[in-house]
Amino acid sequence: MADIIQLLPDNIANQIAAGEVIQRPGSAVKELLENAVDAGATEIRLLVADAGKALVQVIDNGKGMSPADARMAFERHATSKIREIDDLFRIKTMGFRGEALASIAAVAQVEIKTRRQEDELGSFVEIENSLVIKQEPCSTPAGTNISMKNLFFNVPARRNFLKSNAAELRHIIDEFIRVAMAFPHIFFSLTSNGQEVFHLEPGSLKQRIVQVLGNPYNAKLVSVSEQTDYMNIYGFVGKPETARKTRGDQYFFVNNRFIKSAYLNHAVNTAFEGLIAKDSFPGYVIYIELDPAQVDINVHPTKQEIKFEDEKIIYAFVQAAVKHALAQFSIAPSLDFTL
Ligand code: ADP
Ligand code: MG
């Protein structure tokens, strides 16, 4: 019998790997917005058509790329953000895996225009099925303008798994909000089928939260703020009266990264014990900052799950900080201090 094992061609390997990072238009939104943040942009515009199925476009005024980097960015494991494994535990950027653009280029048609401030001309690159089909100099504002068109055009089976436009747009908005809440000093906008849905001027954390979650929150937030040598915690919890029967506005950010943690969620819920009905959930937006060496963010490709070196300390700290904030509020509700 002949040998039967073969290496997969790059474009197929990339399509398979893409499944971990890009499940839907919203996943691309997250990756492209994070790239714009990592590029130091102060203005980031997101445009989508047909709930991202036809187009996801992100325009930033960040540092842009050289012509060679504009191609290289789409190679798998190509990144400017880490050089060695230890860098993972010092990481300050949102990205580091060098997989997002390669994944997107494997499952969609991509066009990018990018220019560094110091270059007179920028580069235009067009990619399909992981292959560069065109690259030429172009004039374009400093920064990066990247379009992902016709997601899964070459993987019909996955295209069929996409949900209705309403559901996919909801995912896009969720991802947009998470990034926007982590970086209140950056201008963000979201335009869907030509209509501006969000226009978020830079401001304080509280302003950004209210911009995103809605005006009714303005008078209903209690500040949380504690510092220790090990970690800082800041942000807001909703006053007990804002608790709802469904889990709604609950956000944790660790070193500016939105994370999902049932464990920390429990810490906040228990801090509310006795203040809200048993079957209801408090709203909160809580930011935790600690040494990156204390967190492993490389446990999941989308980085929404992380591992803490010492989970129990974090739990106790979150719970105590929220309790403290609520106690101060109940003693002097009118003295709600803001950050
Ligand atoms: P990662 O973000 O993990 O490094 P990506 O595939 O998302 O991987 O991006 C690859 C590289 O392309 C980045 O490391 C960065 O150098 C460059 N890049 C991507 N997007 C942008 C952008 N909007 N502006 C400037 N450089 C970018
Ligand atoms: Mg990235």
UniProtKB/TrEMBL annotation:
Origin superkingdom: Bacteria
One GO MF term attached to the UniProt entry: ATP binding
Family, as annotated: Belongs to the DNA mismatch repair MutL/HexB family.
Shown residues within the full chain: 1 to 339 of 603
One GO CC annotation: mismatch repair complex
The protein's name: DNA mismatch repair protein MutL
Known function: This protein is involved in the repair of mismatches in DNA. It is required for dam-dependent methyl-directed DNA mismatch repair. May act as a 'molecular matchmaker', a protein that promotes the formation of a stable complex between two or more DNA-binding proteins in an ATP-dependent manner without itself being part of a final effector complex.
Domain DNA mismatch repair protein S5 span(s) in chain numbering: 209-327
GO biological process, one term: mismatch repair
Keyword terms, alphabetized: DNA damage, DNA repair
